[in-house]
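re: that chain from earlier
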Amino acid sequence: MRQAIAQARLCTPTPTAFNVGALITDPHGRILSTGYSRQFPGNTHAEQCALQTLLTTTNSIPDYKDLVMYTTMEPCSERLSGNKPCVERILEAGIGSVVVGVKEPDNFVKCTGVQMLREKGVRVVVIGEEVEEECRKLNAHLDNE
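^ sequence. v structure.
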């Protein structure tokens, strides 16, 4: 999770979006790809960027269900921009486990990402307290929203 937090620090803060970092590991904990919010054009989210990087740079993964995604914030279940929600992208890729730093605050939408992933059989762990303060600091620019 510390490396996902480091990815989130690469984000340029904006008043209309969270700063999130993500990475994808193999079952042995080796990092296969990373991503952060707005890394690529088109209002991209961290999970989307990590998946996009994985799909374009790695062609030797036998089964995505064995992969683990770490993300500093709950994957989005709804996108106001019209882009595909990260939950859908994770499910389409077949990622088997997701480790979340903190649940998404209700600043923009009521997120149900953790619930949706669990309902589809994805193993989800919300770390919460252990990294909560650090993950929330990444989005201090939105405290007055």
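Residues 46-57 form the longest helix (12 residues).
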